[in-house]
């Protein structure tokens, strides 16, 4: 076995120490998601502050989920880029109906950024972008030596983020009643997926792991992405079956 490809004991200890804070943040996020999930099942939990907690802690968890393999600065810059790109697209859609169909946001969303989009919506783009990227890397971990692995990670991450984003659309319009939309065409859906792909391409310089062969698989992004999808899925099922 090639010793150059195996982490030393010191590196393993360092990696363990690096993962403690991210793991703690993600545990808090999962506990918050459990409260949100109970709320979706009818428990008497205050939805306004709870929803704000899910998004705020979820954003911190998404950043933390990639921190064990990347510098915190890289994770924060990547998250900011995703928030900025998604926020600009959402603001443009709210203002002129492009690249997505226009929406009528409900007061339950809370404060609006520049009077155009809810404060939490751009952050949701950051959550999905980072957690999907880490999840894609985990799924393809065993074949990471593939010549086109980088392209495969980008494509899978865009598909995961785009799928979750479409689920958010269904959740927001049919379950949580967060907004009403004039109707998204097939072209709008395709544009949404394309934007997620472009974001993943743009984030690549910040999210490249310089030593992929020397680190164990990172499961933290999967927990973040899975928890987000579970909450959205529960709301969709509730809207389809219960209501």
How would you describe what is shown here?
Helix 3 (72-96) crosses helix 4 (120-139) and helix 5 (149-175) crosses helix 6. This protein has 243 residues and is mainly alpha-helical. The protein has one domain (3-242). 69% of the residues lie in helices and 4% in strands. A hairpin with a 3-residue loop joins strand 2 and strand 3 (117-118). The strands form two sheets. It has a two-stranded antiparallel ribbon. Strands 2-3 form a two-stranded antiparallel sheet. Mean pLDDT is 84; it is low at 1-17. It contains seven helices and four strands. The protein is globular.
> What's the order of the H and E elements?
HHHEEEHHEHH
Helix content: 55-70%
What does the largest sheet look like? 2 strands, antiparallel
Strand content: under 5%
SS element count, helices: 7
Low-confidence stretches: 1-17
What is the average of the pLDDT values? 84
Question: What's the helix and strand layout?
Answer:
Blueprint: H1 9-40, H2 47-65, H3 72-96, E1 103-105, E2 112-113, E3 117-118, H4 120-139, H5 149-175, E4 179-181, H6 186-207, H7 220-242
Antiparallel strand pairs: 1-4, 2-3
Helix pairs in contact: 1-2, 1-7, 2-3, 2-4, 2-7, 3-4, 3-6, 4-5, 4-7, 5-6, 5-7
Short structural description:
This protein is mainly α and 243 residues long. Helix content is 69%, strand content 4%.
Can you give keywords for this protein?
single chain, 243 residues, mainly alpha, two-stranded antiparallel ribbon, 7 helices, 4 strands
């Amino acid at each position: 076995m090639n010793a150059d490809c195996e982490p030393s004991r010191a590196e393993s200890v360092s990696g363990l120490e690096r993962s403690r804070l991210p793991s703690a943040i993600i545990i808090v996020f999962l506990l918050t998601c459990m409260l949100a999930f109970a709320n979706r099942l009818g428990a008497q939990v205050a939805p306004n502050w709870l929803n704000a907690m899910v998004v705020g802690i979820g954003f911190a968890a998404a950043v933390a989920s990639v921190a064990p393999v990347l510098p915190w600065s890289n994770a924060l810059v990547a998250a900011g880029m995703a928030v900025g790109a998604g926020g600009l697209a959402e603001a443009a859609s709210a203002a002129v109906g492009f690249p997505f169909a226009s929406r009528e946001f409900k007061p339950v969303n809370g404060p609006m950024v520049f009077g155009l989009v809810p404060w939490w919506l751009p952050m949701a783009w950051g959550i999905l972008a980072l957690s999907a990227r880490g999840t894609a890397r985990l799924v393809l971990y065993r074949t990471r030596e593939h010549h086109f692995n980088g392209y495969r990670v980008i494509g899978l991450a865009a598909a995961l983020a785009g799928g979750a984003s479409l689920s958010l659309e269904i959740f927001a319009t049919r379950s949580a009643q967060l907004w009403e939309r004039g109707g998204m065409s097939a072209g709008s859906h395709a544009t949404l997926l394309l934007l997620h792909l472009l974001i993943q391409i743009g984030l690549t310089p910040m999210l490249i792991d310089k030593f992929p062969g020397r680190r164990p698989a990172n499961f933290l992004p999967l927990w973040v992405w899975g928890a987000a999808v579970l909450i959205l899925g529960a709301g969709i099922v509730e809207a389809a079956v219960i209501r």
